[in-house]
Amino acid sequence: MFADTKAFSSFSVNNVKAAKEFYGGLFGLEVRDQPMGFVLQLKSGGQIFVYPKDNHTPASFTILNFPVDNIDKAVDELTKKGITFEQYNNSEMPQDDKGIMRGLSAKLGPDIAWFKDPAGNILAILQES
After folding, report:
1. What is the DSSP letter of 109?
2. What's the rounded mean pLDDT across residues 102-124?
3. Measured distance CA(18)–CA(117) in Å, rounded
4. R_g over Cα of the chain
5. What CA–CA distance (Å, rounded) separates 12 from 121?
6. Residue 62 contacts residue 124 (beta carbons within 8 Å)
7. Cα–Cα distances in angstroms (integers) from residue 73 to residues 35, 47, 49, 83, 126, in the given order
8. Which of 20, 26, 77, 105 lies 20 to 30 Å (CA to CA) from residue 41?
9. Which residues contact 121 (CB under 8 A, 6 or more apart)?
10. How sure is the predictor about 15, in pLDDT bands with cuts at 50, 70 and 90?
11. Residues near 74 by Cβ (< 8 Å), separated by ≥ 6?
């Protein structure tokens, strides 16, 4: 039934202007205005609809993952742009001083670091080993 549809994801923000500046300006993603928000057009062909919500509550889980070739370089570049990486202080997800959880074993997965967008939604960059 849905095998041939062009499904897309969406999430809310509390400030559309700040979100457009963040995703379009800071991240360089293509941002297209829509009547009820805007669309992030990904190079993969995927689309994500972002919409305003007055009583927005930030997602408590990762809503977007951005694969990178070199996580240390990406963390350094984003930090210079004012991004603060989350430190969860969780023994099951050990992170270094940069906020990177290193894929120490198959159980932990890829190297990954989390940060938030202006609306408080959680995003991640990750590097496959």
Report:
1. -
2. 86
3. 9
4. 16
5. 9
6. yes
7. 37, 26, 29, 13, 12
8. 77
9. 11, 13, 58, 59, 63, 64
10. very high
11. 68, 113, 125, 127
Tokens coding 83: 């991004």
Q: State the amino acid at position 52 in one-letter form.
A: P
Q: Residue 81: which residues within 8 A CB-CB, separation 6 or more?
A: 26
In the chain the first and final C-alpha atoms are separated, in Å, by 36
- Residue 42's contacts (CB-CB under 8 Å, 6 or more residues apart) are 29, 48
Distance of CA 102 to the CA centre of its chain: 18
Q: Enter the tokens of residue 97.
A: 């001083």
Question: What is the tens place of the pLDDT at every residue in 80-102?
Answer: 999 999 999 888 788 999 999 98
Distance of CA 123 to the CA centre of its chain: 3
Report which DSSP code applies to 3: T
Give the pLDDT confidence score for residue 106 in this predicted structure.
59
By three-state DSSP, how is residue 22 classified?
helix
